[in-house]
Amino acid sequence: xxxxxxxxxxxxxxxxxxxxxxxxxxxxxxxxxxxxxxxxxxxxxxxxxxxxxxxxxxxxxxxxx
Length: 65
Known about the structure:
Blueprint: H1 6-12, H2 19-24, H3 29-48, H4 58-62
């Protein structure tokens, strides 16, 4: 939850958005940018390590947040 706190993350999750929409809707710029950076660095780290796996499981990709 970075600087926003876990209770705020729960409030932002209304179960109607795809993950990318949910990340874009985070109202705190610093928190939103942190989440985006973590996801981006996950892709870079896996690519450099030769791991072809997607960053999200099928369940995570298809879930609503």
